[in-house]
Amino acid sequence: MRYMTTGILRPFPVIELLIRVGEWGGIARLARALSKVSRVGVRVSLLIGALYFFAGLPTCYASDVVYVRGKLQHPAEDATIRRLVDFYGLTLYTVDVDPQDAVNRAISRMKSPATLAVITSQDALSELDRRQVQEALRRPKGPGIPILVFGVATQKDANELKNWSSGALGECAPLTRDFRPKVLEVGRIGELSRTLAGLVLPAVASPTCNLQFRPTSEIQAPLITREDGGANAAVLVRVRSKTAETFFVPQMEPLDLSRRDESRSLPEEFSSMAPFILFLSYAAGDFGWHMDGSYANLTIDDAWLTQPYGHVNYPALLNEMEKHNFHMTIAFIPWNFDRSEPKVVTLFRTHPERFSITVHGNNHDHMEFGDYAVNPLQDQLADLKQGLARMERFRVLTGLPYDRFIVFPHGIPPEETFAMFKRYNFLGTANLADVPSDVTFPTDPAFLLRPYTTAFANFLSLSRYPVQAQVPRLELAIQSFLGNPLLFYGHEDLFVEGIGAFNAYADHVNEIQPNTQWTSLGEIARHSYLVRRREDGAFDVRMLANEMDLRNPADRDAVFYITREEDSSAIHSLTSDGAPVAFERSKNMVALRLLIPAHQVRKLRLSYQNDLDPSREDIGKSGVRLYALRWISDFRDMYLSKFSLGRVIKRYYYRQGWDSIELHLEQEWWVYLCIVLVFAGLWYRLRRAREQAARKPSKSPPCEHV
User: Fold this and answer.
1) Domain locations in the chain?
2) Contact, 530 vs 290, CB < 8 A?
């Protein structure tokens, strides 16, 4: 058991901590008495600290996974177990059964109150005494600690398998050599499968044998792999008794490793780890890292507040959002800061639960945030400052708030740009990809299990799904199972077939996760923290964005131990509900402790030192090139897209990747402008000719005289 002694010997705060948080009877009463009769703070704190330590009060958190290994090597399973234990923020305690005294250490560790789960290979079972293990895993209150046995093979002693399953399992029978499963089916077992219940994952591995059992309410198969012809084999089996739960996984062989070269293959990677994910997620519960809720958002890029903007009809869309329960964010181009229509502004102001604004570049050209050879970092900094100054002017003109959250135009930039946006107190960014353009996509399969990361410049980066493409519903179910936020985006042409184009997606999300909170990107960033419960009733928190709305979910006051990976020298201030709070600094970490009353929220805001002064920034719209660029974009979205031929051209243009030539055309803007002016002139002449023809009186045919 690990003891946290940080802050114990500090004067007086420790007394408050013991009284407010502890349920430790005599110690708390003694602390109250000492605080009343003694004015010598240091001595009191020393005494309380000593009592706290020697009384053995539990300041650890239940986090241990005991991993018992036999003599055989299981490199794939070893890597998966370590990867997922880290993913859930748990501690792996590994014991090799050889030498024999290690078995005693394993049994002792299983008895620890900090132990959440036990994982063992089948070849280690012969070195363990089942009754001794089951006794170690019993708990006086609540269910026993679950155990998972993996690597079950045909050649092993069937009696051993029967013994550890209390007779529920027979042998693991050999499968035919031509058995090649196509899918991995997830059973409808509520607490294990949750949002995955009844779904089908791609099969990426095949069991080497088939566990023999008769399904009952106490013997279930959460995962079954199946061939096209119908033959199947269990991949995960759960056997329950009154005091124990034991899970079994057969020895698995990979079917195809070519998927490892793909940058996005969430269903395949999840499937490859599915037995261990379902087990550890179930065993860890709130003691593993998780977000504080389920969140979702739809963002429409490029639009500004005019009615309508292309196919975005704001009042009609509001009706759909209220009927189908979703929220829409406008990724607003700061160049448009002074173009908003009062009626649309009023609609946004009166419905903040449905509409929000975030930042979308500055001028929205290819040269803003991207390749430094095209636009150096210093020039990108100038664009950042001008964009923020324009958004501040937008806020003054409209009275509408906006989230200091960036959606990059034309793709994601290099990592140094991430660091720049963090320094100017942006909450994060959301794009098609969450990895900077100058970084190789991580090869760790667990990276795909979360659509957000702070691995690059410690700046929160989220990935999002384009709605115009067919969003894979299996991925949505996996993301929801993992507790991840679901972000969608599109452009005005999302609604070309009708203003209800997003309704089916919203309905699906609300169906698989009924408690989903549809909200702004800023709110999602402020709730993008990982939390885990500790055995002593406190909570650990990993702060991912520079702002956090931290809620105490408990029915009593609780202490939250908060950390954020950060270079503390760059921090300007840290506040809680607007008041400065003390925190501990280290080279790469910021830490603090907060006491939060039951069900209340504390708003933490961490700000960085920078030189931004919006009042000094030039927000003018100088330059013919930028005027032409924005006029062309508006013409494309608000006029060209209204015609079927225009929509066909637009779709083909982006589908073929021809938008990449815009970079060259933006540099040679006069060519682009001349082409548009020629087409505009031809369109005007054709329209005028038609109007003149319509106004010209028709001539009656000459009368025929008889």
Assistant:
1) 13-54, 64-287, 314-528, 530-615
2) yes
| 286: pLDDT strictly greater than 60 | yes
Q: What would the CATH number be for the domain defined by 314-528?
A: 3.20.20.370
274-278, 352-356, 438-442, 528-532 — which is least confidently predicted?
438-442
Tell me whether strands 403-406 and 295-301 are parallel, antiparallel or unpaired. unpaired
Residue with the larger pLDDT of the pair 48 and 261: 261
- Higher-confidence residue of 701 and 454: namely 454
Q: Which letter does DSSP use for residue 71 in this model?
A: S
Residue 213: phi, psi to the nearest 5? Answer: -160, 165
pLDDT of residue 561: 97
User: Is the Cβ–Cβ distance between 243 and 200 less than 8 Å?
Assistant: no
CB of 263 closer than 8 Å to CB of 441: yes
Place of tokens 């135009």: 409
Phi, psi of 582 (to 5 degrees): -80, 145
Measured distance CA(340)–CA(619) in Å, rounded: 16
The angle at the Cα of 429, spanning 426 to 435, to the nearest 5 degrees, equals 130
Which residues are bridge partners to 240 per DSSP? 245
Residue type, 295: Y
Residue whose token pair is 């009609």: 316
Global confidence as pTM: 0.84
DSSP string, 439-490: SPPP--GGGGG-SEE-TTTT--EEE-EESSS---HHHHHHHHHTT--EEEEE
Angstrom distance (rounded) from CA 304 to CA 332: 6
Q: 699 or 42: whose pLDDT is higher?
A: 699
Confidence check: pLDDT of 434 > 80 = yes
- Give pLDDT tens digits for 650-686: 665 555 454 544 554 455 545 555 655 665 666 667 6
Rounded Cα distance between 391 and 403, Å, is: 10
Residue 640 has phi, psi (to 5 degrees) of -60, -40
Q: Which of 436, 416, 415, 418 is nearest to 428 (CA)?
A: 418
Q: Are 622 and 570 in contact (CB under 8 A)?
A: no
Q: Can you tell me which residue has the tokens 């009615």?
A: 307
- Please say if the pLDDT value at position 40 is more than 90: no
Q: Report d(CA 504, CA 696) in Å as an integer.
A: 50
The two tokens of residue 441 are 């996509």
Note whether 305 and 516 are within 8 A (CB). Answer: no
Alpha carbon distance 94, 119 (integer Å): 9
For residue 84, the one-letter residue type is: L
A 10 A CB-CB count for 457 gives 17
Pairing label, strands 547-551, 601-608:
antiparallel
Nearest to 17 by CA among 601, 593, 602: 593
Q: Measuring CA to CA, how many Å separate 312 from each of 345, 496, 582, 649?
A: 15, 9, 47, 20
In the structure encoding, which two tokens stand for residue 575, read together?
A: 């506040």
Q: Where does residue 406 rank: exposed (0-12), middle (13-18), buried (19+ CB within 10 A)?
A: buried
With b meaning 16 or more CB within 10 Å and e meaning fewer, what string describes 502-540? bbebbeebbebbeebbbbbbbbbbbbbbbbbbbbbbbbb
pLDDT at 44 over 80: no
192, pLDDT greater than 50? yes
- Note whether 367 and 375 are within 8 A (CB): yes
Say if CB 269 and CB 299 are below 8 A apart. no
Distance CA 466, CA 289 (A): 28
- How far, in Å, CA of 304 to CA of 302, rounded? 7
Of residues 281, 287, 280, the one with CA closest to residue 118: 280
Mean of pLDDT over the chain: 85
In CATH terms, the superfamily for domain 64-287 is: Class I glutamine amidotransferase (GATase) domain (3.40.50.880)
Give dist(CA 528, CA 94) in Å, integer. 31
Largest CA distance in the chain: 131
* The two three-digit tokens of residue 384, written as one number: 């950042």
